Structure prediction request, 296 residues.
Amino acid sequence: MLLFAVGAYVFMKIMLKEPIIPGRGKKATPIKLNKKNNEKGKNNPLQAEEDPRIFEELFSDVKDISNHLIHYTDYSFSIIAEVDPVNYFLKSQFEQEAIDVTFESWTATLNYPVSVYLQNRFVDVSEPIEAMNKVMEESKDLNEAALSFGKAMIADIVEWQKSAPRFETKIYMIFTHKINVNSISADSEEELEEKIVDKAFAELMRRVNSARNQLRKADIHVSLLPTEGIYELLYYTFNRRKAVKNRFKDLVNQEKDALYVTADQTDSHIDLVKETIQEYEDNENERERAREKEAS
Prediction:
């Protein structure tokens, strides 16, 4: 019986990876720090590392987005066109062949790079719902049955959107052109920049119009994406899930109504804005006092 107990004890200790004889465990060796390095660490505490500026580095070659163009640091420019495609598979065989011929004819004329960008977005039905609610509120001749049907349909649409993730695909064409600065003469740097932008826009717009005119025969509609549209495109690129709840349109409207811009600003700029507001308020107060004196 004693031998069985001893054997069970040894087996248990082996399974638990513990020393068989108590107190004979291997003690951890204390780590000896370098005295010189330790003293140096006390006098010079480590500073928190700065977060990597990944987003800024991603757009390090982008100079500006304005005039419906993306400006790069090497005097290259990009213009973006939104494409409303044709429903190819609902066409007859004859119509499909005509679409193929039109598209192939356009691609054969290209002697410059064209990129196609596909962006998947969550389906947003908030704007149609707002339009429907507005119509129901403004229509005074609707009876109870029509109003009830409209409200039920809106509820079904909202439930349809929430039931499962649903996507829509946006299609864009990107045209890029680099300007040879040495071929442009100007009297000042501002004039040079203006001429560069004008020349780039004229060339890129010519390419967009060429695509629009030729693809129109295939029932493919091409339209220029304005500056605000480029920002919206980038917003959906980096905020695909949040873009449904926090719509870009709402953010723009909030920014227009805000007293201060929400982007990072220097202290001197903020102080200048405050001084301007204070001067405006002082002038308004003086005018109000002058009106009161005239009235009395």
User: Anything to note?
Assistant: Residues 24-33, 35-49 have pLDDT under 50 and may be disordered. The CA atoms of residues 16 and 232 lie 61 Å apart.
